[in-house]
Amino acid sequence: MSREGVRPGTARWLVKKPGGTWKTGGKLKSTARVGSHVETSWGRGGHTGPKYPRNTKLCVEFRGLSTKAFVTLK
User: Fold this and answer.
1) Most confident of the ranges 4-8, 50-54, 56-60, 67-71
2) 3-state class of 13 per DSSP?
3) Fewer CB near the last or first residue (10 Å), C or N of the chain?
4) How far apart are CA 22 and CA 12, in angstroms?
5) Separation of alpha carbons 16 and 55, rounded Å
6) Cβ-contact 54, 60 below 8 angstroms
7) Smallest Cα–Cα separation from 15: which of 47, 46, 61?
8) Which parts of 1-74 fold into alpha helices (H)?
9) CA–CA distance, 44 with 50 (Å, rounded to integer)
10) Three-state secondary structure call for residue 45
11) How far apart, in whole angstroms, are the C-alpha atoms of residue 33 and residue 73?
12) pTM here?
């Protein structure tokens, strides 16, 4: 996931399966600047990683930023 206007540092992600509660999906990961955005990925090359059912909500929390980035899996 990427976020505009954030300094490079670390980020963590939270996951909420349908009918469940928010849980931390992993430890803090480093972020890297890509143009005007900062991005981070989980898994190898951003193409592998955990698999979740439809309608699972993911949230990325960038350290030092109060606004979180949310996405719902379709």
Assistant:
1) 56-60
2) strand
3) C
4) 13
5) 9
6) no
7) 61
8) none
9) 11
10) helix
11) 25
12) 0.67
